[in-house]
Design goal:
The structure holds two protein chains of two kinds. Chain A is of the alpha/beta class. Chain A has helices at about 45-50, 75-80, 100-105, 115-125, 140-155, 170-185, 200-205, and strands at about 5-10, 20-25, 30-35, 60-65, 65, 85, 160-165, 190-195, 210-215, 215-220. In chain A, α6 links the parallel β7 (about 160-165) and β8 (about 190-195). In chain A, α3 packs across α4 (about 115-125), α3 (about 100-105) runs parallel beside α5 (about 140-155) and α4 packs across α5 (about 140-155). By secondary structure, chain B is α+β, with helices and mostly antiparallel strands. Chain B folds into two domains: about 1-55 and about 165-295, no CATH class; about 60-155, 2-Layer Sandwich (Alpha-Beta Plaits), CATH 3.30.70.3040. Chain B has ten helices and six strands. In chain B, a hairpin with a 1-residue loop joins β5 and β6. The chains are: A alpha/beta, B alpha+beta. Bound molecules: adenosine-5'-triphosphate and magnesium ion.
Amino acid sequence: MNLIEIKNTYKQYKNGVTALCDLTLSIPKGDFVFLVGASGSGKSTLIKLLYRQEKPTRGEVYVGGINVAKLRNRKVYKLRRKLGIVFQDYKLLPGMTVYENVAFALEIYGLPEREVRKKVMNAIEKVGLKEKFRSYPDQLSGGEQQRVSIARAIVNNPKILICDEPTGNLDPNTSLEIMEFINKINEEGTTIIMATHDKDIVNTYKKRVITLEKGILISDKEKGGYKTNESI
Amino acid sequence: MKAFRILIKNISDGFKSVFRNFSLSLASISCITITLILVAIAIILSENVNKFTDDIEKDVTIVVYIEKNTQQIDIDATKEKIEALRNIESITFTSKEEIRQEMSKDSDGLGTILGEYNESNNPLLDEFLVKVTDTEKIGETANRIKELPFINAVKYGEGMVEQLVKVFDVVKKITFVIVVGLVIVTAFLISNTIKITINNRKRQIEIMRLVGASNAYIKLPFFFEGIILGFLGSLIPIFLTCYGYIFLYQKLNGILFTEVITLVNPDNILFHLSIILMAIGIIVGAIGSYRAVRRHLKI
Ligand SMILES: Nc1ncnc2c1ncn2[C@@H]1O[C@H](COP(=O)(O)OP(=O)(O)OP(=O)(O)O)[C@@H](O)[C@H]1O
Ligand SMILES: [Mg+2]
């Protein structure tokens, strides 16, 4: 079984909107997948199924061997410990420094202080924020905040890094910086799933591209490019 | 080791939270403090009341006067009949001669008067002194004795004792109700404090969930917060009751009004009382936070 297996999965929200329709796809270990599609096409919904923010209405979703659809609320943390998640809105805690925001994700494991410090500083250094580890989020630029959230996502060496528009609010240069960084993590062996609207990024990196339209998978290409509506 | 480190972290998070919302925490702590002071007073009162009733009960006797000129054989039979009744702890016979001598000793005036009598014309009556096991039923027992033959009259605390015991009983029940009420109010207040902490930390909880914190890890600090509030709230009451009671005890020389009614010795009560107060504080805190977590931290 692949690292991620999605079989005939439907997602219908309570208000009746069908966000995903009969989706089947598998992602092997080490893949780098771009998830593209127009606004409302179901990218975020798919990503939320992966980290069990939402449950599928029908079908099966396996992440690292865990059947996400059947996962009980109490056990969700076991799934999430395998994942690193990067959010478009960063989800940093304003009252905590960069260091504390990243350490936050490690403290739950009950590691010794020394080990936490080492891993946290390592992750902060990787994203290039070593000088600012004592800053608070509101003292950082958008790109820097996004890097903090990436540092938090990777601090525990997750098998899978899930990013929902990690460059959504950033200027092209900063976006590229972030992408370089995510690419590097992929090269180190982490599987990446990234939803994005950014044509340039998708076209530059030549990775697997999965395109959704109105909740339906319309194309899945290795080394693909960003499809515009006209080219479909 | 891991679990231990997590526990330490949870406890320290609980502490931080208490001091972060200090004004709110202070309200809860004050409420627990007031409740526990009342609990302490109630316990000290009721312990003392118990002791008083014991003391008084020990002192309560039914005096049974035997008819004049009753034969010794009938006296013995009556004694056996009384002993056979329920609720009898002990019975002793005192002859009128003994009483006469006793009374003469007690007072010179009486001595002179009684001195004019001798064994054959002693105007006093022989009597039994009866002690009962259950003071509350002393009236009933006295009536039973009265119905026996050769009994002239029966006297005891004349209802005074029964009433005193009943009043103490009512006082005990009322304090119990007040304490239970206060404990409930306090639990609600703590629950509310924790609820506000939970609401203040909605975002933090959400992110904790996302980075893979287990439910227990998320919930435990809130429990500890409640327990810490309860613990802090018990400190002042413990201090106050210990010093207050020792002071009172010394001021009153350990007795109330008369030598008959003695106060409970502080050494016998304060250690237990302190533990009870702390336990109530902690349990109330735990219940309050449990309720808040159950109702407001649905994860
Ligand atoms: N919580 C929700 N409740 C009801 N409907 C929802 C919910 N979340 C999303 N939807 C609906 O599901 C559909 C897919 O939404 P989704 O967020 O997955 O799109 P998306 O591809 O991520 O869009 P965008 O590119 O704008 O982020 C949309 O029609 C949206 O309105
Ligand atoms: Mg989206």
